[in-house]
């Protein structure tokens, strides 16, 4: 029996060959279908349901490339935004509203009460979240405002909802390179 199954090769080889071709074709069809389906579902989730990314990035040619690293704390800035975190033990920042122009600013946080953090909600600000752990300390970072508008900042510690504020930004659109050049040319930019 075993020898008999191994002997008559040609016809069987052809059949196996056809079978292999058929399987490959079927696999290709399935793969295509999967690709098409996943593309569609990506489109759906990106456009309809939650679109913080596409929403915040749609409008501009001054947008830094996605994936730009956050700005380091050290470096030039055209001005400083001074904010106090948790004054008198409150779950708040003071002031809750500030004004600035477009460009790169230093943000200096006086930590009145620890256990907070500070970040700008818009990714395009290239702001690196600050951890505000020690009361009495001062922590700083730099923020990029590419165009006029309201830029919200907040503490994202659970339970601290509402600990937030806004920077009202005015001025012409700027790229990061332009903003850094302007900041470097600003005499008072030393930390
Ligand atoms: Cu907080």
CATH architectural category of the largest domain: Sandwich
Radius of gyration, Cα only, in angstroms?
28 Å
Total domains, how many?
A: 2
- Principal-axis shape equals globular
Q: What is the fourth-level CATH superfamily of the largest domain?
A: Cupredoxins -  blue copper proteins
- Work out the number of β strands: 9
Low-confidence stretches: 1-5, 32-61
- The amount of helix comes to 25-40%
The helix/strand series, from N terminus to C terminus, equals: HHHEEEEEEEEEH
Percentage of residues in strands:
25-35%
Looking across the biggest beta sheet, what order are the strands in? 3-9-8-5-6
The SS-based structural class is: alpha+beta
Largest sheet: 5 strands, mixed
- The separation of the N and C termini measures 89 Å
Mean pLDDT: 78
Multimerization state: single chain
Q: Which fold does the CATH topology of the largest domain refer to?
A: Immunoglobulin-like
What are the bound molecules? copper (II) ion
């Amino acid at each position: 029996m075993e020898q008999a199954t191994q002997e008559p090769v040609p016809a069987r080889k052809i059949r196996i060959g056809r079978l292999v071709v058929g399987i490959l074709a079927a696999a290709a069809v399935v793969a295509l279908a999967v690709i098409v389906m996943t593309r569609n579902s990506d489109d759906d989730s990106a456009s309809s349901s939650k679109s913080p990314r596409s929403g915040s990035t749609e409008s501009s040619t001054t947008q830094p490339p996605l994936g730009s690293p956050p700005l380091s704390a050290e470096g030039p800035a055209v001005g400083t935004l001074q904010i106090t975190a948790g004054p008198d033990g409150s779950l708040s920042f003071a002031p809750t509203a500030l004004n600035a122009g477009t460009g790169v600013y230093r943000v200096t946080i006086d930590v009145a009460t620890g256990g907070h953090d500070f970040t700008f909600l818009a990714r395009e600000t290239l702001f690196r979240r600050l951890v505000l752990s020690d009361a009495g300390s001062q922590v700083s970072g730099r923020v990029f405002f590419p165009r006029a508008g309201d830029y919200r900042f907040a503490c994202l510690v659970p339970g601290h909802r509402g600990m937030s504020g806004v920077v009202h930004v005015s001025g012409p659109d700027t790229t990061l390179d332009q903003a850094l050049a302007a900041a470097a040319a600003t005499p008072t930019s030393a930390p």
